[in-house]
């Protein structure tokens, strides 16, 4: 049977989704104390799940086709490494520890050197993000736009109630915790194989590499699909909210 040339061109335009990822898990999590007094932030358990944040992340990555993950450790690295060594993980995991602080960009570049396929695309995620959405769709979005890097965009709820007014200044309504009108960096990324070379050896890529790519129109933003779950675990309140949302999803 003759191959449809449209299928061949489609396959070239949308290469296979990445199978490797970096998890940035070196933060101190000072706003999560006392939970982080004896463990790194990604090792804090989501109440009611029996798993730390990184356990949920690795399960999600594996479900999305990732077979190899590099976990970049820092604060209390030994606690995280011990858990990773003993837990029944759904994918292969390598850990790296920065001998001295390299900054977010430098740390990402250092971790990327340990990926099994340096010539392949890769995902990255911050170690404090709990989310569920299709990484394969994000990878296709990235490829379609010919981007060097793509970041997921979330619209979190504003933690305060807001007041809606008309053009005359009359109050029309009070809205409790509305969605932000502006998207934020969700801390999940797709990177092309050329991205690592653009990272600084020391410093923050969000102040150097990302602005440069944005000016060159080589940075894309993937809006999380409507209804996709996303939460950054920064404070004890976030843990409580995550547990409440989980209960609502699994309740009768």
From TrEMBL:
Name this polypeptide is given:
Guanyltransferase
Q: By its UniProt entry, which CDD domains does this protein fall under?
A: NTP_transferase
Note the superkingdom of the native organism.
Bacteria
- One Pfam family name from the record? NTP_transferase
Q: Could you tell me which residue ranges the Nucleotidyl transferase domain spans? A: 21-247
Q: What is the lineage of its organism?
A: Bacteria, Bacillati, Actinomycetota, Actinomycetes, Kitasatosporales
């Amino acid at each position: 049977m003759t191959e449809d040339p449209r299928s061949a061109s489609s396959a070239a335009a949308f290469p296979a989704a990445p199978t490797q990822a970096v998890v940035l898990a070196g933060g101190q999590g000072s706003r999560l104390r006392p939970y982080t007094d004896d463990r790194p932030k990604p090792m804090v358990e989501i109440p009611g799940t029996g798993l730390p944040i990184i356990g949920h992340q690795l399960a999600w990555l594996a479900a999305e086709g990732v077979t190899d993950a590099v976990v970049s450790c820092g604060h209390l690295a030994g606690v995280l490494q011990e858990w990773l060594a003993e837990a029944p993980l759904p994918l292969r995991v390598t850990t790296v520890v920065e001998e001295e602080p390299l900054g977010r960009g430098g740390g990402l570049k250092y971790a990327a050197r340990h990926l099994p396929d340096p010539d392949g695309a890769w995902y990255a995620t911050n170690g404090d993000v709990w989310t569920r959405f299709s990484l394969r769709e994000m990878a296709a979005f990235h490829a379609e736009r010919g981007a060097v890097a793509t970041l997921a965009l979330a619209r979190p709820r504003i933690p305060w109630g807001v007041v809606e007014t008309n053009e005359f200044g009359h109050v029309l309504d009070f809205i409790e915790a509305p969605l932000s009108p502006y998207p934020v960096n969700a801390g999940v990324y797709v990177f092309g194989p050329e991205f690592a070379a653009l990272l600084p050896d020391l410093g923050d890529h969000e102040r150097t590499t990302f602005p440069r790519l944005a000016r060159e129109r080589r940075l894309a933003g993937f809006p999380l699909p409507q209804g996709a779950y996303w939460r950054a675990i920064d404070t004890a309140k976030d843990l409580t909210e995550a547990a409440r949302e989980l209960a609502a999803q699994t309740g009768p």
